[in-house]
Protein backbone atom coordinates (compact mmCIF):
# COMPACT_ATOMS: atom_id res chain seq x y z
CA UNK A 1 0.00 0.00 0.00
CA UNK A 2 2.81 2.40 0.96
CA UNK A 3 4.65 1.55 -2.25
CA UNK A 4 1.53 2.32 -4.29
CA UNK A 5 1.10 5.67 -2.57
CA UNK A 6 4.75 6.58 -3.17
CA UNK A 7 4.45 5.68 -6.84
CA UNK A 8 1.34 7.83 -7.12
CA UNK A 9 3.11 10.79 -5.49
CA UNK A 10 6.06 10.41 -7.85
CA UNK A 11 3.64 10.39 -10.79
CA UNK A 12 1.86 13.51 -9.53
CA UNK A 13 5.11 15.40 -8.90
CA UNK A 14 6.53 14.43 -12.28
CA UNK A 15 3.30 15.45 -14.03
CA UNK A 16 3.29 18.84 -12.31
CA UNK A 17 6.94 19.43 -13.20
CA UNK A 18 6.28 18.53 -16.82
CA UNK A 19 3.32 20.90 -16.91
CA UNK A 20 5.36 23.86 -15.69
CA UNK A 21 6.89 26.30 -18.12
CA UNK A 22 10.43 25.30 -19.00
CA UNK A 23 12.63 28.35 -19.65
CA UNK A 24 13.43 28.55 -23.36
CA UNK A 25 17.02 27.91 -24.44
CA UNK A 26 16.97 31.35 -26.05
CA UNK A 27 14.85 34.45 -25.60
CA UNK A 28 11.45 33.93 -27.17
CA UNK A 29 10.39 36.17 -30.00
CA UNK A 30 11.61 37.64 -33.27
CA UNK A 31 13.54 40.90 -33.18
CA UNK A 32 12.52 43.67 -35.57
CA UNK A 33 14.40 45.08 -37.33
CA UNK A 34 16.33 41.78 -37.61
CA UNK A 35 19.76 42.07 -36.04
CA UNK A 36 18.81 45.07 -33.90
CA UNK A 37 20.70 45.19 -30.61
CA UNK A 38 19.07 46.59 -27.50
CA UNK A 39 20.68 49.07 -25.16
CA UNK A 40 19.39 50.59 -21.91
CA UNK A 41 17.96 53.61 -23.74
CA UNK A 42 16.02 51.56 -26.29
CA UNK A 43 12.24 51.51 -25.91
CA UNK A 44 11.30 47.86 -26.30
CA UNK A 45 7.86 47.00 -27.60
CA UNK A 46 6.79 43.38 -27.18
CA UNK A 47 3.96 42.44 -29.51
CA UNK A 48 1.93 39.23 -29.33
CA UNK A 49 0.57 38.31 -32.75
CA UNK A 50 -1.43 35.53 -34.36
CA UNK A 51 -0.61 35.17 -38.10
CA UNK A 52 -4.28 34.60 -38.98
CA UNK A 53 -5.71 37.24 -36.64
CA UNK A 54 -7.24 40.19 -38.56
CA UNK A 55 -6.47 42.60 -35.71
CA UNK A 56 -2.81 41.56 -35.72
CA UNK A 57 -2.76 42.13 -39.47
CA UNK A 58 -4.29 45.60 -39.17
CA UNK A 59 -1.96 46.72 -36.39
CA UNK A 60 1.23 45.71 -38.20
CA UNK A 61 1.56 48.49 -40.86
CA UNK A 62 1.31 51.49 -38.48
CA UNK A 63 3.47 49.75 -35.92
CA UNK A 64 6.16 49.04 -38.52
CA UNK A 65 5.95 52.62 -39.76
CA UNK A 66 6.55 53.92 -36.26
CA UNK A 67 9.49 51.57 -35.77
CA UNK A 68 11.10 52.79 -38.98
CA UNK A 69 10.54 56.40 -37.99
CA UNK A 70 12.27 56.09 -34.63
CA UNK A 71 15.06 53.85 -35.87
CA UNK A 72 17.48 52.63 -33.22
CA UNK A 73 15.59 54.36 -30.40
CA UNK A 74 12.81 51.76 -30.58
CA UNK A 75 12.88 48.00 -31.10
CA UNK A 76 10.25 45.30 -31.41
CA UNK A 77 10.23 41.78 -30.03
CA UNK A 78 7.46 39.84 -31.72
CA UNK A 79 5.97 36.85 -29.91
CA UNK A 80 3.56 34.37 -31.43
CA UNK A 81 0.33 33.39 -29.70
CA UNK A 82 -1.60 30.96 -31.93
CA UNK A 83 -5.18 31.34 -30.72
CA UNK A 84 -7.08 28.04 -30.41
CA UNK A 85 -10.18 29.35 -32.18
CA UNK A 86 -8.16 30.12 -35.31
CA UNK A 87 -7.83 26.67 -36.85
CA UNK A 88 -4.59 27.40 -38.69
CA UNK A 89 -2.90 29.68 -36.18
CA UNK A 90 -0.56 27.00 -34.89
CA UNK A 91 0.61 25.70 -38.25
CA UNK A 92 1.21 29.20 -39.63
CA UNK A 93 3.11 30.14 -36.48
CA UNK A 94 5.19 27.02 -36.91
CA UNK A 95 6.06 28.08 -40.46
CA UNK A 96 7.47 31.35 -39.11
CA UNK A 97 9.71 29.45 -36.72
CA UNK A 98 10.88 27.24 -39.58
CA UNK A 99 11.99 30.05 -41.88
CA UNK A 100 13.52 31.96 -38.98
CA UNK A 101 16.16 29.23 -38.69
CA UNK A 102 17.38 30.23 -42.17
CA UNK A 103 17.16 34.02 -42.06
CA UNK A 104 15.47 36.45 -39.69
CA UNK A 105 14.32 38.66 -42.57
CA UNK A 106 12.38 35.72 -43.98
CA UNK A 107 10.29 35.57 -40.81
CA UNK A 108 8.76 38.99 -41.31
CA UNK A 109 8.45 38.56 -45.08
CA UNK A 110 6.42 35.41 -44.52
CA UNK A 111 4.41 37.09 -41.77
CA UNK A 112 3.46 39.83 -44.21
CA UNK A 113 2.62 37.14 -46.75
CA UNK A 114 0.22 35.58 -44.26
CA UNK A 115 -1.31 38.97 -43.54
CA UNK A 116 -1.72 39.74 -47.25
CA UNK A 117 -3.35 36.39 -48.02
CA UNK A 118 -4.86 35.80 -44.60
CA UNK A 119 -8.30 34.90 -45.89
CA UNK A 120 -6.85 31.73 -47.44
CA UNK A 121 -6.35 30.35 -43.95
CA UNK A 122 -9.55 31.38 -42.23
CA UNK A 123 -11.61 28.64 -40.62
CA UNK A 124 -14.38 28.67 -43.21
CA UNK A 125 -11.97 28.51 -46.14
CA UNK A 126 -10.11 25.47 -44.80
CA UNK A 127 -12.79 23.56 -42.91
CA UNK A 128 -12.90 20.82 -45.57
CA UNK A 129 -9.12 20.59 -45.95
CA UNK A 130 -6.89 18.12 -44.17
CA UNK A 131 -3.89 19.32 -42.19
CA UNK A 132 -1.43 18.13 -44.90
CA UNK A 133 -3.44 20.11 -47.46
CA UNK A 134 -3.19 23.25 -45.33
CA UNK A 135 0.54 22.71 -44.90
CA UNK A 136 0.88 22.44 -48.67
CA UNK A 137 -0.89 25.79 -49.07
CA UNK A 138 1.53 27.30 -46.57
CA UNK A 139 4.50 25.86 -48.47
CA UNK A 140 3.13 27.34 -51.69
CA UNK A 141 2.67 30.76 -50.10
CA UNK A 142 6.11 30.59 -48.53
CA UNK A 143 7.67 29.75 -51.89
CA UNK A 144 5.95 32.71 -53.53
CA UNK A 145 6.82 35.09 -50.68
CA UNK A 146 10.41 34.00 -50.08
CA UNK A 147 11.61 32.22 -53.20
CA UNK A 148 11.99 28.66 -54.46
CA UNK A 149 14.81 27.88 -52.05
CA UNK A 150 12.35 27.94 -49.15
CA UNK A 151 10.12 25.23 -50.55
CA UNK A 152 12.32 22.42 -49.29
CA UNK A 153 13.02 24.34 -46.08
CA UNK A 154 9.34 24.50 -45.21
CA UNK A 155 8.60 20.93 -46.24
CA UNK A 156 11.40 19.49 -44.14
CA UNK A 157 10.68 21.89 -41.31
CA UNK A 158 7.17 20.57 -40.81
CA UNK A 159 8.68 17.10 -40.33
CA UNK A 160 11.17 18.39 -37.77
CA UNK A 161 10.11 18.31 -34.13
CA UNK A 162 12.26 21.37 -33.39
CA UNK A 163 9.81 23.74 -35.08
CA UNK A 164 6.91 22.14 -33.24
CA UNK A 165 8.75 22.54 -29.95
CA UNK A 166 9.62 26.17 -30.67
CA UNK A 167 5.97 26.96 -31.44
CA UNK A 168 4.85 25.32 -28.21
CA UNK A 169 7.40 27.32 -26.24
CA UNK A 170 6.12 30.55 -27.79
CA UNK A 171 2.55 29.69 -26.87
CA UNK A 172 3.47 28.78 -23.29
CA UNK A 173 5.61 31.88 -22.92
CA UNK A 174 2.77 34.12 -24.06
CA UNK A 175 0.38 32.38 -21.69
CA UNK A 176 2.85 32.79 -18.83
CA UNK A 177 2.76 36.56 -19.40
CA UNK A 178 -1.01 36.51 -19.02
CA UNK A 179 -1.64 37.20 -22.70
CA UNK A 180 -4.87 35.69 -24.01
CA UNK A 181 -5.67 37.74 -27.11
CA UNK A 182 -3.96 39.30 -30.10
CA UNK A 183 -2.63 41.79 -30.69
CA UNK A 184 -1.35 42.51 -27.19
CA UNK A 185 1.50 44.90 -26.53
CA UNK A 186 3.96 45.63 -23.73
CA UNK A 187 6.17 48.71 -23.64
CA UNK A 188 9.41 48.31 -21.67
CA UNK A 189 7.92 45.26 -19.98
CA UNK A 190 4.76 46.98 -18.79
CA UNK A 191 1.21 46.72 -20.02
CA UNK A 192 -0.09 49.23 -17.51
CA UNK A 193 -0.96 52.73 -18.75
CA UNK A 194 1.08 55.72 -17.73
CA UNK A 195 -0.65 58.07 -15.31
CA UNK A 196 -0.03 61.01 -17.63
CA UNK A 197 -2.57 60.59 -20.40
CA UNK A 198 -5.12 62.41 -22.52
CA UNK A 199 -7.82 61.24 -24.87
CA UNK A 200 -8.80 62.36 -28.35
CA UNK A 201 -12.05 61.86 -30.20
CA UNK A 202 -11.55 61.38 -33.93
CA UNK A 203 -13.63 60.33 -36.89
CA UNK A 204 -12.58 57.11 -38.58
CA UNK A 205 -14.08 55.05 -41.38
CA UNK A 206 -15.11 52.51 -38.76
CA UNK A 207 -16.94 55.17 -36.79
CA UNK A 208 -16.15 57.45 -33.90
CA UNK A 209 -13.10 56.28 -31.99
CA UNK A 210 -11.26 57.22 -28.86
CA UNK A 211 -7.48 57.42 -28.92
CA UNK A 212 -5.83 57.29 -25.53
CA UNK A 213 -2.37 58.81 -25.58
CA UNK A 214 0.19 58.35 -22.81
CA UNK A 215 3.27 60.43 -22.29
CA UNK A 216 6.31 58.24 -21.72
CA UNK A 217 9.92 59.38 -21.50
CA UNK A 218 9.36 62.51 -23.62
CA UNK A 219 7.66 60.47 -26.31
CA UNK A 220 3.97 60.21 -27.04
CA UNK A 221 2.70 56.65 -27.05
CA UNK A 222 -0.75 55.71 -28.29
CA UNK A 223 -1.82 52.77 -26.22
CA UNK A 224 -5.37 52.15 -27.36
CA UNK A 225 -7.77 53.05 -30.10
CA UNK A 226 -11.18 52.01 -28.86
CA UNK A 227 -14.35 51.88 -30.91
CA UNK A 228 -16.84 53.67 -28.69
CA UNK A 229 -19.79 51.76 -30.11
CA UNK A 230 -18.42 48.21 -29.96
CA UNK A 231 -15.75 48.84 -27.31
CA UNK A 232 -13.27 46.77 -29.29
CA UNK A 233 -9.58 47.49 -29.20
CA UNK A 234 -8.57 48.27 -32.77
CA UNK A 235 -4.95 49.24 -32.34
CA UNK A 236 -2.48 49.31 -29.46
CA UNK A 237 0.84 50.91 -28.74
CA UNK A 238 1.44 52.91 -31.89
CA UNK A 239 4.36 55.26 -31.39
CA UNK A 240 3.85 58.59 -33.13
CA UNK A 241 6.16 61.47 -33.96
CA UNK A 242 4.04 63.99 -32.10
CA UNK A 243 0.52 64.52 -30.88
CA UNK A 244 -0.26 67.21 -33.42
CA UNK A 245 0.97 65.51 -36.59
CA UNK A 246 -0.84 62.27 -35.84
CA UNK A 247 -4.01 64.05 -34.79
CA UNK A 248 -4.08 65.90 -38.11
CA UNK A 249 -3.61 62.66 -40.04
CA UNK A 250 -6.65 61.20 -38.30
CA UNK A 251 -8.76 64.35 -38.78
CA UNK A 252 -8.90 65.44 -35.18
CA UNK A 253 -12.21 66.97 -34.11
CA UNK A 254 -11.72 67.81 -30.48
CA UNK A 255 -9.93 66.83 -27.31
CA UNK A 256 -12.26 65.18 -24.85
CA UNK A 257 -11.98 64.18 -21.27
CA UNK A 258 -11.01 60.53 -21.12
CA UNK A 259 -13.01 59.65 -18.04
CA UNK A 260 -16.18 61.20 -19.47
CA UNK A 261 -16.02 59.27 -22.73
CA UNK A 262 -15.19 55.92 -21.15
CA UNK A 263 -17.95 55.93 -18.55
Keyword list:
263 residues, alpha+beta, Glutaredoxin, 2 domains, 5-stranded antiparallel sheet, 4-stranded mixed sheet, disordered C terminus, transmembrane helix
Q: Please trace the helix and strand order, writing H or E for each element.
A: HEEHEHHHHHHEEEEEHEH
Shape: globular
**What's the gyration radius in Å?**
21 Å
CATH architecture of the largest domain: 3-Layer(aba) Sandwich
Helical proportion, percent range: 40-55%
Low-confidence stretches: 3-19, 192-211, 213-263
InterPro entries: Thioredoxin-like_sf
Keywords: Membrane, Signal, Transmembrane, Transmembrane helix
Protein name: T4O12.23
Account of the 3D structure:
With 263 residues, the chain is α+β, with helices and mostly antiparallel strands. It folds into two domains: 30-186, Glutaredoxin (3-Layer(aba) Sandwich), CATH 3.40.30; 193-262, no CATH class. 44% of the residues lie in helices and 23% in strands. A five-stranded antiparallel beta sheet has the order 8-7-6-5-9. It has a four-stranded mixed beta sheet with strand order 1-3-2-4. Helix 3 (89-100) crosses helix 8, helix 4 crosses helix 6 (131-146) and helix 6 packs antiparallel against helix 7. The protein is globular, with a radius of gyration of 21 Å. The chain starts with a helix and ends with a helix. The model is unreliable at 3-19, 192-211 and 213-263 (pLDDT under 50).
Amino acid sequence: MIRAVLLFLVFVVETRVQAQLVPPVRQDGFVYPPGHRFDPDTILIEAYFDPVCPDSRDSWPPLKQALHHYGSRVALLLHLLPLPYHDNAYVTSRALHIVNTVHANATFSLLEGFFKHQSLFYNAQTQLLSRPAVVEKIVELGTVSLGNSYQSVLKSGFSDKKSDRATRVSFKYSASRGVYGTPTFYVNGSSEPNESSICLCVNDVRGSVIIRIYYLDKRYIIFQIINTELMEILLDYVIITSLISYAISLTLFQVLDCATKQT
